[in-house]
UniProtKB/TrEMBL annotation, chain A:
Any single GO CC term annotated in Swiss-Prot or TrEMBL for this entry: ATP-binding cassette (ABC) transporter complex
Organism this protein belongs to: Psychrobacillus soli
Domain Solute-binding protein family: 80-423
Name listed for the protein in its UniProt record: DNA-binding protein
Any single Pfam family the record assigns to this protein: SBP_bac_5
Subcellular localization: Cell membrane
Transmembrane helix recorded as keyword: no
Automatic annotation (TrEMBL), chain B:
The keyword Iron-sulfur belongs to this UniProt entry's keyword annotation: no
One GO location term (cellular component): plasma membrane
Family: Belongs to the binding-protein-dependent transport system permease family.
Membrane topology summary: Multi-pass membrane protein
Protein name per the record: ABC transporter permease
Keywords, sorted A to Z: Cell membrane, Membrane, Transmembrane, Transmembrane helix, Transport
Any Pfam family matching the protein: BPD_transp_1
GO biological process terms held by the UniProt record: transmembrane transport
Transmembrane parts of this sequence: 12-33, 76-101, 108-130, 194-217, 242-262
Annotated CDD domains: TM_PBP2 (cd06261)
Localization annotation: Cell membrane
Length: 509, 274
């Protein structure tokens, strides 16, 4: 008798569970016959900061750029378009920028944007009040001025052809003075979406900014960024319609190809295998060239990215358009004999032993290392793989520069200058290769003084050539980022940097 | 020999030994010969299904999976042996002293063991590996430390039981040193449950190594480990399922073999079974 009762209980509980499940399943899927303009986007990880001036991780900007705008906004082709500033004028000497501020811009809290807010923003970034700059991008700024309610003036110490690129939300998002000290907990900007709620480890919710200055935009009522680091779970969530958009690793593309819309995006990153130029034997150009001749880019692209990558020959991706120097990807076509010769000339006829240290946060790096080890074994170089945790990689390799070889991808930027400036010998914070070349330094210094775009392009291309000639790194590829989205989603834009722009996204079904 | 033959009907013993012996043969063979070089890549030939050239197919770099499975037995046996050695030596020493001496020694030792046991094994291993760095030796040491408490408990109960027996009493009376009593006289008498515990922890260690390598903390690339292969194959689960089968089946059989063997040993050693 007692046993029967247990069974009855079990069945009753299961029925309840089924009933609850059935109820919750119906909720939300039908809203007045029309698809609700609500999107859920999977992101690998939490943002580091919500305050756009404090955030450094590219993963943060992927999300928060939807909330903020700078004086200018980066376009999908890497050019700039006016945002908070409607137009600008540059003085003859290239030092004074005069911006005409757009009239009908409102912050998410309902207050109109004023030049005081812009002044506040730049003062905060430059540390004008407390002497602690939040950003080094504005060290070249001599002064800022707000002569009237619609005009903002920035005066530079030296001409800088790249200066406008530091006026996007990536580097100088305009934030209201009234929200001082509160920006990280309750971010306020002028972008197409406003902050609703951030639940650490779970999601970031944004809602439509009804008072956005571009009245047509945005289409979506709500955007939720869901944090999920595991690809397997993310794909399952996509199939269960728990998320509408997610990145897909190339090797899993086959699982979602048929049922979802796939978009491919050139990432504009530089995937490199690089060396510590100050350590023997990597201080010898011939050794670096030998390694370049030995590494098989196509094997890496095939094995690690299932073919979804564009081979590169210098530190720039074809995604950069006019600035990109084509043809460099073929300079070091695989040639084992040549590599052995160069190695012998350099005094290592029998090769040598070294270590490649890679981060564990993405298998990509250790997989690349495995191919490199095999390739270099063919020319007698014996490489040991050391896998370290991401934090240790940053501390010891990126900042500490205590390494022989490593593999990493350098994140893309909208500006050609910022893509290449890692290699400037005086850029101590980013030049972790310890690359040093006088001509390169000079070219990069000259380009800032050059106003003519065609000449700038010429100089940027020369800079890329130098990196190839000097074999500064082994340039492997720009790997594509693949997105899978539910059918009926339109308006996804791909940028030459990490940004999930939701402003023009909409559901059509 | 006669005693062994009399257990020929013990299905656990026969099957368990058969499985383990075949892995042992595979391991010894892998020192001298594998069908292909385990690290040589042939990307053009990647993710091919099982064939007469590649019995278990090829991985994402076009390496032969069967050769890597063979080499992986070395890793599995190495980790298992080192782990069990550490676990048994320290476990017996600590448990034996706690049980034989008793009193505060017992209290202190066993409370430490309790504290160790309170941690979930894999978390403790993760912590130790995080501190001392990944790698096959560190992994084995971490797993060995985790194996200590359970063996110590078994040893302790055996020693407590036996220290009251007449043979111990008489040894004491003729003035045998305590250490000699413990390890010359008591240990052989309490060894059978320890042997069972050791063979169980051998299987557990292999599984844990697979788990740690699966998390990227155990054996480092390009050295093959079954756990790491399982992890790598996960990315190709839907497109190339056979890649997963080989390491998955190897781990399953190896652990199964050890469990069957330990079951058999327990049956044979159990005086009530006769």
């Amino acid at each position: 008798m007692k046993k029967n009762k247990n069974w009855f209980m079990l069945i009753a509980i299961m029925l309840c569970v089924l009933l609850i499940g059935a109820c919750s399943g119906e909720e939300g899927s039908e809203a007045n016959g029309e698809k609700a303009q609500v999107i859920k986007v999977r992101i690998n990880d939490d943002p580091d900061f919500l305050d756009p001036h404090l955030a450094t991780a590219s993963i943060s900007f992927q999300m928060i750029l939807n909330m903020f705008e700078g004086l200018f906004a980066p376009e999908t082709d890497g050019s700039l378009t006016p945002a908070v500033a409607e137009s600008y004028e540059l003085s003859e000497d290239g030092l004074t920028y005069t911006f005409n501020i757009r009239d009908n811009v409102k912050f998410h809290d309902g207050n109109a944007l004023t030049v005081e807010d812009i002044t506040y923003t730049f003062n905060r970034l430059m540390g004008a009040e407390n002497g602690e700059p939040l950003s080094s991008d504005f060290n070249n700024v001599a002064s800022t001025e707000a002569p009237d309610a619609d005009t903002f003036v920035i005066k530079l110490k030296e001409p800088n052809s790249n200066f406008l690129y530091s006026l996007t939300a990536l580097q100088s998002a305009i934030i209201p003075a009234s929200n001082d000290g509160n920006q990280n907990d309750n971010p306020i900007g002028t972008g197409p979406f406003k902050f609703v709620k951030y639940t650490p480890g779970a999601n970031l919710e944004l809602a439509k900014n009804e008072e956005y200055w571009d009245e047509k935009l945005p289409y979506l009522d709500k955007v939720t960024f869901v944090f999920q680091s595991d690809d397997q779970s993310a794909l399952m969530a996509l199939k269960a319609k728990e998320v509408d958009l997610t990145g897909v690793p190339a090797n899993r593309l086959a699982e979602v190809e048929n049922d979802f819309t796939i978009s491919k995006q050139n990432n504009n990153s530089s995937l490199i295998v690089t060396f510590n130029h100050e350590k023997e034997p990597f201080n010898d150009l011939r050794v670096r060239q030998a390694i370049n001749y030995a590494v098989n880019k196509n094997d890496i692209i095939d094995a690690v990215f299932s073919g979804y990558a564009t081979p590169t020959g210098s530190n720039m991706s074809p995604a950069m358009g006019d600035y990109y120097k084509d043809g460099l990807q073929d300079v070091y076509a695989r040639n084992i004999e040549k590599a052995k010769e160069l190695l012998a000339e350099a005094g290592y006829p029998d090769g040598f032993s070294t270590k490649i240290s890679v981060s564990s946060h993405n298998d990509m790096y250790s997989n690349i290392a495995q191919v490199v080890v095999e390739n270099l074994r063919e020319i007698g170089i014996n490489v040991e793989i050391e896998v370290v945790e991401w934090g240790i990689w940053l501390e010891r390799i990126y900042f500490g520069r205590d390494y022989d070889m490593t593999a990493i991808d350098l994140t893309g930027r909208p500006s050609a200058y910022e893509v290449l400036n890692d290699y400037i010998s005086t850029n101590d914070s980013e030049n972790f290769f310890k690359f040093k070349n006088a001509e390169f330094d000079q070219t990069m210094a000259d380009v800032l003084k050059e106003a003519d775009r065609d000449k700038q392009i010429e100089m940027y291309q020369r800079a890329q050539e130098i990196l190839t000639e000097e074999s500064a790194s082994v340039y492997i590829a720009d790997y594509q980022v693949l997105w899978a989205s539910g059918k009926g989603i339109e308006g996804l834009k791909s940028y030459p940097f990490w940004f999930h722009d939701m402003s023009e996204v909409r559901f059509t079904e | 020999m006669k005693t062994l033959m009399s257990h020929a009907k013990n299905i656990n013993l026969v099957l368990g030994l058969l499985i383990l012996l075949s892995f042992l043969v595979l391991m010894i063979l892998s020192f001298f010969y594998t069908p292909y070089d385990i690290n040589v890549m042939n990307v053009a030939n990647k993710l091919k299904g099982p064939s007469s050239e590649h019995w278990f197919g090829t991985d994402e770099f076009g390496r032969d999976i069967f050769s890597r499975i063979m080499k992986g037995t070395q890793t599995a046996f190495f980790v298992g042996t080192l782990t069990v050695t550490i676990g048994v030596i320290f476990g017996t020493l600590i448990g034996g002293m706690a049980g034989y001496i008793g009193g505060w020694v017992d209290e202190v030792f066993m409370r430490i063991m309790d504290a160790l046991m309170a941690f979930p094994g894999i978390i403790l291993a993760l912590m130790l590996v995080a501190v001392f760095g990944p790698g096959i030796v560190n992994t084995s040491i971490a797993l060995g430390i985790i194996a200590i408490p359970s063996i110590a408990r078994i040893a302790r109960s055996g020693f407590i039981q036996h220290k009251e027996f007449e043979y111990v009493l008489s040894a004491k009376l003729i003035g045998v040193k305590p250490f000699k009593i413990m390890f010359r006289h008591i240990l052989p008498n309490v060894s059978s449950p320890l042997i069972v515990a050791a063979s169980v922890s051998f299987g557990v260690a292999m599984l844990a190594e697979a788990a740690l390598s699966y998390l990227g903390l155990g054996v480092q690339p390009p050295n093959p480990s079954w756990g790491r292969m399982l992890k790598d194959s996960q990315a190709y689960l839907t497109s190339s399922p056979w890649y997963t089968y080989a390491p998955g089946i190897s781990i399953t059989f190896m652990v199964l073999g050890f469990y069957m063997l330990s079951n058999a040993i327990r049956d044979i050693m159990d005086p009530r079974s006769n």
